[in-house]
Structures are given as C-alpha cells and as structure tokens.
Amino acid sequence: MSFSQQLPIVFEALNVGFLQTLKLFFVTLLGALPLGLLISFGSMSKFKPLSGLIKTVVWIVRGSPLMIQLLIIYYFPGLVFQNNIWGSGENGRFLAAAVSFIINYACYFSEIYRGGIQGVPKGQQEAGQVLGLKKNQIFFKITLLQMIKQIVPPMSNEIITLVKDTSLARIIALQEVIWAGEAFMKGSNGISGQIWPLFFTAVYYLAFNGILTLLFGKLEKKLSYFK
Amino acid sequence: MDNILEVKNIKKSFGKTQVLKDISFSLKKGKALAIIGSSGSGKTTLLRCLNFLEKANEGTISVNGEVIFSGSENQKLSDSEIRKNRLHFGLVFQSFNLFPQYTAKENVMLAEQILAKEQIKKNGEYNGYKTIKEAYEFIDNKAEDLLESVGMKHKKDFVPCELSGGQQQRVAIARALALNPDILCFDEPTSALDPEITGEVLNVIKKLAEKNTTMIIVTHEMGFAKEVADEVMFMDNGKVEEMGTPEEIFSNPKSERLREFLKTVLRI
User: Fold this and answer.
1) Model-level pTM?
2) What is the ipTM, given to two decimal places?
3) Which residues in chain B touch residue A133, judged by CB atoms under 8 angstroms apart?
4) CATH 3.20.20.80 applies to domain A3-226
C-alpha cells in the first residue's frame, strides 16, 4: 500500500482514538474539578480526624504512580471479589480509567485549590464577616474569583499534563490515540510494520495543548483587570 | 443618659497572653470615641471583639440596652442572630480590604444586595420593597449617594487597584456605612497611607463626626483625635488607663503612663 493510500486509513483510526482521549480528558475534568474542591475543604477542616484522613489519601494518591492506580482499580475487583464491577469491553475499561483519573487528578487539584484559597488575604474574609455575610456567601461572592485568578497558572500546567497522562490508560487497553497509532506496528486495517502513525500521535497532543494554552492565556488576561 | 454602647469587663487572652484585662466603657449616641495607646496595648483587639472577629473570653457588650454578647453564658446563637448582632457595628480596616474584583460601587452594594435578596425570599420584602429589582434600584441609588458623600462618585466604576490608598479607604468607609451600623469603628484608618493623603480620609471622618455618627476610632493621629473626638480613651497594657475629654487627656493627663506616652508621641 502506498503512503498516500495509508494516510486516510491512519487518520481515521487516529481520529477515533483521539476522540476517546478527549472523552477521558473532559470526563476527568468534569469529575476532578469539583471533587478536588471538596477534598481541599476536607484537608483544611478544623476537625482533625477528617483533615488527617484526607491528607493521608492525598499522600497515597499523589505518592504512587497513576499507572499502578489504574491497574489496581481496573483489576482488583475482578481478581479479589471475582466481580468485574466495571463491565466488559471498551466501556468497562473507560469507566475504570475515568474513575482512576478523577481520583488522581482531584488530589492534585485539591492542593492547587488549597494554595489558592489560602493565598487570598485573610482580610477579605474578615471584611465579608463584618458585613454580615455567611461563610458560603463569602466563599462564592468574594474568595472564589480571587482564588481562580491565583490558580490559573498552576492549573493550566496540571491540565496540560492531564492531556498527556490520558495515554497511560493504554495500560488497561483503553483504545485511546496512542493505542490506535501503535496498532499499525502490529498490523491493522491492512497496514503493518509502520511506526510513523505512532510518532504522528504526538501532533494531536501538540495541537490540542496549543489550543488549551491559548484558552488559559485568554482567561488569565480576562482576570487581569483586578489585582 | 442614653448609652448606645455599653462594654463591661471584657477579657481576652491569646494562649497565655492576656491582651485585654477587664475593659469597661460606655459610649453615648452620636459621639466619637478615639482610642489611643502604644502598639500592643490591645486597641485593635478590643475593636475586633466588638466586631465579633475575635470572641472575648469574658464580659458583656450591649447595644441600645440589649446584650448582644455575653462571654459567661454559652449562648448558641443562630446564624441570623449573629449576623444581626454584627450589623450593629461597621468596621473600616487599616488595610482597606476592598474586594478587588468589584468596582467601588459594587463593593458598597454587595452586602446589602445579598441581604435584600435573602429577606425578599424569606419575608417577601426588604425595606418595603417587594421585588429584587426594586430593592436593587434602591441599593444602587443609595450606593451612589454614599460614594458622593465620601467624594468618590466620579470613581464608582473603578476597581480598587485603579484607586489610590486614600481613595480606597474612602470607598471602604462608604461600604461600612451601607448597612447603617449603629456604631462605626475605624482601625487605624490612615496608618497604611502616605502622610500627604491621610488628610482626605481624616476629612471624611470629620464630616461623619459633624453629622453625629457614633464612632470608635483607633488612631495614632493625636491631632486628629484631639480635634474630632468627644472622648479619648488611653489604653495601656490591656487596660483602660485613662478616659476623658480630649482636653483632659491631652492637656491635663493624670496617669504617669499617659504622660510618658504623650511625651514620646508628641515629640515626633
């Protein structure tokens, strides 16, 4: 098969794979962004048993490889309880991957949130208090936007890392873009022994991260109206 | 005599350090009280106790004859009661603490908008206004009037970082007045300002005094205290060392500590 004949086949397969990558990326964000906030509140709790427990969980999740977490979460229920709670096939693998990523990234996000919340001067909270605002009103009306402004740079770093980390889901055979590229080495759709499709997957990541970088830059600029 | 504020036997410790040792005083409606004293004498802590930013260990605070804080009883106050008690007092901070993401006008409006929205939801009305839209219009006009009164209406759409320190503090004063507190407190309102712009803030406070706003002003500006205050309290080492008219305090100090303090401060 000539190169020009291979191209459309390869692109189609990579597009399908990248769609799965994107799906995992967005589902992880959707779950980990709010969960991370809850975890950060837990870790800042004045109730010591809770903050201690949360800090231990964050330590374990951040301290061990995401790849191991993926393997444990995917295989553990089936191996130990003879019960594959994730369901079979690609959907089951996606679900297990999404849960692993959400837990893992929520822990990282929680520390970024914590830094952002604690970086808002205490006087802001006190000003809200003397005006009679309740705790949740102070958080949503006063602290939140100031926190967001502070965390945009570390958050963009972490989110760009997430885009690339989705490739780790390949370890439980999730058919994301790298899996799709690699297939052409072993043989797929009549193409085999080709390594360029695998290398080419990097272009997808580059392009997508380029878009994200632009968006984060825009957000940063939008929030630059106040200090 | 009508005392708007009555403070009795307030004590406050941080760990083993007793910062307030049995503070009692009262204040009449429409009067301005200046609190002077060296750093660490407990002035700011006293102000923070009045505003519920710190919880006093002992003592009582009454406003208009109603006990709003009692350290001896372990009262369980509901959120709305605590809020109601808080709103007897307004506080202007040394470092302004304006909300940076909001414009001057939004800073003034924020708390009252939230309050109005809640009360309309709960009671069906706020200040006689039945809809949020009407209430907001009222709050909007009021905010402009308040900004006008501190000479900041022309900057109402500016965010704090576009304003000078003196301008920010004037907006902060308007914000503290928005919920009509019975007693307006100032915690060293000019200490974070350049000397040449303290005047604009002091003039605003002076105008408030002329309108008989009840005020408690913690300050290092002795000249200002002398000119504006009806009463001056000298605090030393967590106690009220001496209290009296500006005349008595500055021209005829009785205690040794006050004489020493005035000697050091006025020499500079």
Assistant:
1) 0.88
2) 0.92
3) 111, 114
4) no
